[in-house]
Structures are given as C-alpha cells and as structure tokens.
Write a structure and sequence with these properties.
The chain starts with a helix and ends in an 8-residue tail after the last helix. It is built from 17 helices and four strands. Helices cover 69% and strands 2% of the residues. The radius of gyration is 22 Å and the shape is globular. The strands form two sheets. Strands 1-2 form a two-stranded antiparallel ribbon. The chain has a single domain, classed as Ammonium transporter fold. The chain is mostly helical.
Length: 430
Amino acid sequence: MKLLSCPFALLLLLLSGSSAFAAEAIDTGDTAWIIVATALVMVMTPAGLALFYGGMSRYKNLLNTYAMTFVAYCLGSVVWVMWGYSLAFGPDVSGIVGGLNHAFLAGIGVDSVSGTIPTLVFVVFQMTFAAITVALVLGSVVDRMKFSSWIVFTILWLTFIYSPIAHWVWGGGWMGAMGALDFAGGTVVHINAGVAGLVLSYVVGKRIGYGKTPMFPSSVSLTALGAALLWFGWFGFNAGSELAADGIAASAFLVTNTSAAMGALGWMGAEWLINKKPTLLGLASGVVAGLVAITPAAGFVGLISSLIIGGVAGVLGFFSVAILKSKIGYDDSLDAFGVHGMCGIWGALATGLFANPAINELGKGLFFGNPGQLLIQAVSIVGTMVFTAIGTLVVVHITKAVTGGLRVSEEDEVLGLDTAIHGERAFEIE
C-alpha cells in the first residue's frame, strides 16, 4: 500500500493504536455478506418458521403458535447478548462452557474483529442461530403449552442447553477439539432441538383427542409459504457459516439448494408410493428435511453427495413422521423430532461419510479415506442427545415449578389458545 510506503503515515498508523490495525483486518466483502446472511437467518424465525408451524397448527391455535415463535426470537435476541454469547464463545472452561467474560458483550467494541468480520456482526449472526433453535422445539408442543411456561423454558434452555453445546462444537469445547464436523448446525441446532422437543412432548403429554379426533392444519398454504421463506433464509444459514465470501460459501449455497430440492422429491415419492397422493404439505416438509440434513455437511461436501443426502433425508423424514411416530405413540405436534432430530442425525453421519477435502481441507470423511471421522460424528451425536435429553428434562421440571405447570387447562385447550390466552382470532370468517 502507498500509505505504508510513507514513513510519516506509518508513524501515524503506529501511534493511532490497535483500532487502526483492527480496521485493516476487516474484509468489507466478507462483512457485507455476513450482514446479509444474518438478515436471511433472522427472517427464518419470526416469518418462515412462524408461518410453517402456524399453518400446520389447528386454526384455533394459529396465532398462539405464531406468538410463541415470535417471542422465542425476542427472548433469544436478549438472552444472547446478555450472557448466551459469552457462555458459547467466551474463554473456554474445561471444554464445557465459555466464561462470562463477555456478558453484556463486555470487551467487545466496534473495533473488535473475529476473523475478517467485526465481532459484533459475528455476535448477531450467532444470535439468529440460538433463536431459531429454541423456536424449533416449539413444534413438539403447540396446541397445549402455557405461554408463560414457554417463556421461562426458552430462557432456561438457551442458557443451560443451547449455549454449552454451541461452545462444545464452535466455541473451543471438547467436540470441536475432538474433530467433530458441524458446518452450520446439524448437531448444535437440529439434533439438539429435535431431542429437546421429544422430551418436552412426553412431559407435557398428548393433545386432547390425539389419535381419535382429526387434527387438520389451519392452512397448508401458509405452511408452504413458510417453507419457501425457510428455504430462502437457509442460504444465509449455511453459506453464511463459512464467515467469508469465498468458494466454500458458494459451494455451500449450491448444495443447500440441491439437497432441499431432493428432500422435497424424496418425501413426495415416498408419500406417493405409500399413501397414493403427493401432498403439498409433504413437499414443504421434504424441503425442510433436505435443508436440515445438508446443514452440518454444507461446507464439506460436493454436488453428488448433496443429491444423496437430500434424497435420503426426504424419505427418512416421511417414514419418521408417518410410521415411526405412530409406532412409538408420542405426540410431537409438528414433528420437530421426526424432521429435525432424525434428519439432523442423518446429516451428521452423512458428513462423516461424504466430507471431501477437495471442497474443504478441514473435512475428510470415510469415503475419502478417513473412517475415524464417522466415529467422531457418532460420538458427537450421542453426546448431544444424552446431554440434551437429561438437561431438557431438568429445565422442564424447573419451568414447571416456577410457572405452576406446563400445560393449559382442559377448558382453554378445547376453546383454543388464540382466544383463551391472547384474546384474538387469526381469521374473521363470520
């Protein structure tokens, strides 16, 4: 640079302190992309997921589902900057959790840099992940959980479950040190949320009339729109996780779209074969299944692998929802475990199979000469499932004690939570 060739200018640079050097470390292209990616992921929760879940809930609970998704994003935004970020990305404490050095973002200013982007951008990007993860849990208990209990549960779960697991994988914890691969959140987000939802659904119990009374979705159209918005936002989710505007981000973008499309086709094919009708709800669900499965692998696998990952995810998601749930008999209202848990497990294992060092030198799976990676992925899956299951159970019981129970009254459940809790109706049709 000509500036540095001038001794006087160099002296001024030296005297100006570390902030000037920090500014030099920032890549404006990377920063611009991650700001856009953050906005894309933000849209996924109060818009994409709210519509996706709201449309699948019964008409009398549509607004409640939307409100619980919306408040999850709000709570996630606040908890994250107060202490969640520090617990996830603060100085490592025994490989388990981050310290509270950055509580309320202490020590992080406008000149702080993470890699090639401002640390504040990284904080907000990761915040959107935390918010959508706890919002995904909601899918297991719509129609019957108290709004107040959901608020308390969200705060506790983000603090004691999500933040430590994020630290394990991305913040310098034991899973990352072990070599576990999770590019954008297959373990941290989807397995974590799916298992938590399953535990919560068992504790809260089945909906009144479950298995006896038809429970039709309020609007498949809203669900399909929500799936489209999730698909759109997922490009920020996966390609943004590279934290740079480069070739790996471009590859992640491509395979994310491919896996989503294959997931939709796989689900449609399985449903058409078994039930003789290809439904729009199935197509929308298949898109999400494909997106979930590619998430941990997005920055490590190529095109052919993404076709396989997405196709298998679509079929697996359908059988998990249509067959596995009925055989086990749990009431996971909107199939958080069947789609996010099961397809997240498949995606994490698939990363251990298909990670290609030609795509990303940080990942090398079984089919590229490293069978040990599959074992590492399996350990990370089991570790996450055990911790999440036990931890969520503890959080659930604390929530129950604080709020006097998790479930709405039978009268309110029959009436509908839109009216009983919020005093509103989604549609005025009279």
